[in-house]
Amino acid sequence: MLKHIFCVLLLSHLLLTLGCAGVGGGRSSWPPDAIGPGWPSDSPRVRFLGSFPHPPDSEETQGKRLSRFIFGEDHPPHPLINPVGVAADGDGRVWVADPGGRIVHVLDLSRGRSSVMGQVDGAALEAPAGLALDADRDRLYLADTQLKKVFILRSDGSYLGEIIPPTPFGRPAGLAIDPVGNLYVADVIRGRVFVFSPQGAFIRALGSHKTPNGLFLRPIAVAVSDQGQVAVLDAMNFRVELFGPDWLPHGVVGGIGDSPGLFARPRGVTFDGDGNLYVADAAFDNIQIFDLEGRLLLYFGKSGDEAGQFCLPAGLYRDRANRLYAVDSCNYRVQIFEYLPMSGL
């Protein structure tokens, strides 16, 4: 109940400040140093780096100390309302899609600055959800599920155009970029993942290799590894379907259940630099890590608001430095972790 009241108060504050591009002062804190626990504890493969921002009335925690170090004593001027998606460039710039506030938060952690993007090409955003960054081409892709559009922006937010599918999108959500710059769009209503070239030309549609009609049942997220493997998170089938770099079916990860290796409410997916698969589950409040054969390697997280704990985790994103960004929705923050590569997890 207290979090619901807090959310309403934050929304009221946001409506008063939405038209301004707020900037919070602070010292540089990028790249972040490890300040928290690792998993497994005896020989960590994943380590907590910090989180941002923090609710104004939260107690002093490691995440709050990092946020205060980044933004100074004042809180970032635009608090998170209902964050779902995230993207990052690895140099301290982070974008967070917040459909609850109808905005995208733009944070420069290296300079301690933050602003918001509430319009694209003069049109107000309604439900920004998916984000993907093509740093090589300076392109930020943004999916708005209510507008049923995928926008092409520069990293500074300036408008470049839209992705035009062969038939209109039903509800574009999760986005991903592959190693050659192709864009993947998970369409929740159409039940497919659409693939577009860096020039915006339609290439093909990926469908389920496990359903009779060849459609996913609520594909909400998609990820592509550095090696070209594609992972489609099919939320209502409680699994991740894998495809090879040639787009041929590779296998399935997960299934419905309440034990490790299975899913109850999967919401986010990404790969690390070695091709391991990460899946965030909002029912378990954890992140599970698998190899490409579907074997569970490690899981971490539980309900709570401390380092490495979650409340309805959602979107996941991995930057070029193997940092993992995990949207922690009802803790109103994004947590940052690092993957520590070794011969195996």
Number of DSSP strand runs: 27
> Quick one: CATH superfamily?
TolB, C-terminal domain
Q: H/E order of the elements?
A: HEEHEEEEEEEEEEEEEEEEEEEEEEEEE
| Overall CATH architecture | 6 Propeller
The low-pLDDT segments are 1-27, 56-63, 65-75
User: What would you report as the Rg, rounded to the nearest angstrom?
Assistant: 19 Å
Global outline: globular
Number of helices in the DSSP assignment = 2
* CATH third-level topology: Neuraminidase
CATH class: Mainly Beta
State the share of residues found in helices, binned by percent.
Answer: under 10%
Sheet with the most strands: spatial strand order: 1-2-27-26-25
Q: What number is the mean pLDDT? A: 87
Largest sheet: 5 strands, antiparallel
